[in-house]
Amino acid sequence: MDIPRIFTITESAHRIHNPITPDKLATLGAALRLEPGTRVLDLGSGSGEMLSTWARDHGIIGTGVDLSQLFTEHARLRAEELGVADRVTFIHGDAAGYVSDEKADVAACVGATWIGGGVAGTIELLARSLRAGGIILIGEPYWRQLPPTEEVAKGCLATSIFDFLMLPELLSSFGHLDYDVVEMVLADQDGWDRYEAAKWLTMRRWLEANPDDELANEVRAQLTSEPERYAAYTREYLGWGVFALMARP
Ligand code: SAH
Fold first, then answer.
1. Which of 110, 209, 238, 246 is 20 to 30 A away from residue 31, measured at CA?
2. Is 117 touching ligand 1 by the criterion CB < 6 Å?
3. Would the pTM of this model clear 0.85, i.e. be above it?
């Protein structure tokens, strides 16, 4: 049970598997006014940077669930490194349908909303683990500029223009689900560079170390084409943000 191996190759050196930067993750933690002892559940927790740094900085208690064995191992190591291994738990497993025994004050899915079959389904899933009055965090892309053609949308690795909304429409879509948007932290192009460009050096080094691997050709092809594709499409057209939501009474 794991994610496709290509991701554990290209993102093996990432602490954050999204265009949000350490600074902005800290900004988000401060913006949420987290109190010590706040329980945070994170579905698709990746290498655990959000939970571990918030445990260090705000004394939260965290549980993360992630399908990648490698990222989960990295998350546990990072928690030890930051001295918070007693406050955060990382579970290796499928988060689809995951509901916590104990209700969380904050329930998050940051950049993995396919886990609940899209934004609406993921909000529903997270709500099942959330205490009344708690906060849901959704990390999701939106169009910075609407792609003029379907070809441009595909250049962003979307299946269609309809995969994502413009920011105002994304915000109003939360309202249609009966949630108030109570905070947001948006990524910028420098953050996208940290997420995407960091893959290139990782790929190059992996290729040097694994020339005969069955995925070597695929990784070589990606390293060759990705910088230009990314600059032409994702960097220009795709925005990304984390949105904090509270159910309307
Ligand atoms: N929230 C993290 C990781 C985002 S990347 C961060 O911001 O850094 C998406 C993550 O979802 C990856 O770590 C991947 O392993 C995980 N994932 C994909 N499918 C999943 C599933 N069904 N259940 C749990 N995690 C999943």
1. 238
2. no
3. yes
